[in-house]
Specification:
It is a single chain. The chain has 17 helices and 14 strands. The chain has 482 residues and is α/β, with parallel strands linked by helices. It has 2 domains: 210 residues, Rossmann fold (3-Layer(aba) Sandwich), CATH 3.40.50.300; 155 residues, 3-Layer(aba) Sandwich (Rossmann fold), CATH 3.40.50. Helix 2 packs parallel to helix 3 and helix 3 packs across helix 4. The chain starts with 9 loop residues before the first helix and ends in a 27-residue tail after the last helix. The structure holds adenosine monophosphate (AMP). Adenosine monophosphate binds next to helix 3. It catalyses: ATP + H2O = ADP + phosphate + H(+). Belongs to the DEAD box helicase family. RhlE subfamily. Keywords: ATP-binding, Cytoplasm, Helicase, Hydrolase, Nucleotide-binding, Ribosome biogenesis. DEAD-box RNA helicase involved in ribosome assembly. Has RNA-dependent ATPase activity and unwinds double-stranded RNA.
Length: 482
């Protein structure tokens, strides 16, 4: 199957080839011909399936048949022909970038609008009229209110990540936007999960839609290896640093439940030689863009994000996703791990589960209809309580630590190995050497590891209770998106 055989013109096929895609993904194979036929679509597909190209390419084909703007077409001031609505700024920017890369040979006029940045450049971009507008609902409604944009001539309407729109409380804004659209239009709805609320919305929005289901809703992609580590809450940060180091993970996306928790973890990892940055709703747009750019270019190794901030992140070949805390809503787990194993690649998703999260884990296992295997702790030794209360890696081991309990080893530090396992990939920036830290072993050779495990009786020492201050607080969702 080729892109040309799906009915796309040479201009688009060449642009797609230049992007590096050789074969259409399953969602593209099904969606592209259906959109070209003029059908409404209801698509169950999560991020990573290639859904953006699945709607962008046929819309571009319809707007520019055979790569040309239809003769006699005149741009009308402030009017828009195709509207793509997304829940977050990052997703909007990502979708717009993708569309532009497919339209390199077309005389396309497009813009991307979202809140958190000045409105004037957006108003200017909208003024002459556009072929495609990618927007977050809040800012779009503001600009509609100011008559900077007129939605009465929209021919193609895409509602992307509809379930997330709902979760983030944008449903009323979405309905207001829909009310501004003309009655006659083609509608494409994408959602990773289909709750009864989404189905209701779909029933109102879509006319005789073609239904496409790429992975069954609420299941996770099979090629993603998923493992859990049962660990006390207070030991999680040391464990995550240990896993990153031992596994030589180069690019890791970590989810926390709270903004504060994201900041604290990023700070801890950075202090301990694993360059990290946090993104969440309290960060400015420029800080978030910079963190993402640094992450993509391997300038930082770990990106710590809240669920809301992570929506729409499109990072090629993201190999590792870590749930530092499990999400309160089981569906969010599906979204989170959809960040790895993208477009046919394999990935690894790791969840750190403290005793109070067992219920959440059960709910996720029920939803995804699988049981996750326990991960290999690779010699992780939990830090002592006193070390838990300190972020200072330079503190002498054993100083001021409480007396050892029965069965605990003399030192909580795992033996140091020689050299680093995480050799930089060709072309990536060299990394700073790591500092020693409580509970975190540097890579060691097999003989040293075997000797150490024998000395420990081949088991992990008992864990100390979690300090109270690590309890997460919930993030208010309304800050983001538009
Ligand atoms: P999406 O699900 O639209 O967020 O796309 C996920 C990732 O897959 C993006 O990085 C796309 O650039 C990439 N992608 C989309 N279509 C293809 C394709 N046919 N072949 C390879 N990669 C693709």
């Amino acid at each position: 199957m080729s892109f040309a055989s799906l009915g796309l013109s040479d201009a688009l096929v060449r642009a797609v080839a230049a992007t590096g895609y050789t074969t259409p993904t399953p969602v593209q194979t099904q969606a592209i011909p259906a959109v070209l036929e003029g059908r409404d679509l209801m698509v169950a597909a999560q991020t990573g399936t290639g859904k953006t190209a699945g709607f962008s390419l046929p819309i571009l084909e319809l707007l520019f048949p055979d790569g040309q703007r239809p003769s006699g077409y005149k741009r009308t001031a402030r009017q828009v022909r195709a509207l793509v609505l997304t829940p977050t700024r990052e997703l909007a920017a990502q979708v717009h970038d993708n569309i532009r890369s497919y339209a390199t040979e077309l005389q396309m006029h497009s813009a991307c609008i979202f809140g958190g940045v000045g409105a004037n450049p957006q108003i200017k971009a909208l003024a002459p009229g556009l072929d495609i507008l990618v927007a977050c609902p809040g800012r779009l409604l503001d600009l509609v209110g100011q008559r900077a944009v007129d939605l009465s001539a929209v021919e193609y309407f895409v509602l992307d990540e509809a379930d997330r729109m709902l979760d983030m409380g944008f449903i009323h804004d979405v309905k207001k936007v829909i009310a501004k659209l003309p009655a006659k239009r083609q509608n494409l709805l994408f959602s990773a999960t289909f709750s009864s609320e989404i189905t209701q919305l779909a029933n109102r929005l879509l006319h005789n839609p073609a239904r496409i289901e790429v992975t069954p809703p609420n299941t996770t992609v099979e090629r993603i290896e998923q493992r859990v580590f049962r660990v006390e809450a207070g030991h999680k940060r040391a464990l995550i640093a240990h896993l990153i180091t031992m596994g030589a993970w180069e690019q890791v996306l970590v989810f926390t439940r709270t903004k504060h928790g994201a900041n604290r973890l990023a700070e801890y990892l950075s202090k301990h030689g694993l360059p990290a940055a946090a993104i969440h709703g309290n960060k400015s747009q420029s800080a978030r863009t910079k963190a993402l750019a640094d992450f993509k270019s391997n300038g930082i190794r770990v990106l710590v994000a809240t669920d809301i901030a992570a929506r729409g992140l499109d990072i090629d070949q993201l190999p590792h996703v870590v749930n530092f805390e499990l999400p309160n809503v089981a569906e969010d787990y599906v979204h989170r791990i959809g960040r790895t194993g993208r477009a046919g690649r394999s990935g690894e998703a790791v969840s750190l589960v403290s005793p109070d999260e067992e219920k959440l884990l059960k709910a996720i296992e029920r939803l995804t209809r699988q049981r996750f295997e326990e991960g290999d702790l690779q010699g992780f030794v939990p830090p002592a309580q006193a070390e838990l209360n300190s972020d200072r890696p330079e503190r002498p081991r054993g100083a001021n630590t409480p007396s050892r309990g029965r069965g605990q080893p003399r030192s909580n530090a795992a033996p140091r190995g020689q050299g680093r396992a995480d050799k930089p990939r060709p072309g990536s920036k060299p990394r700073r050497p790591q500092q020693a830290m409580p509970g975190i072993a540097e890579p060691e050779d097999a003989v040293a590891r075997e000797r150490r495990l024998q000395a420990m009786g081949n088991r992990v020492v008992p864990e100390t209770p979690a300090p109270k201050r690590n309890r997460p607080r919930r993030e208010k969702p309304a800050l983001l998106g538009s």
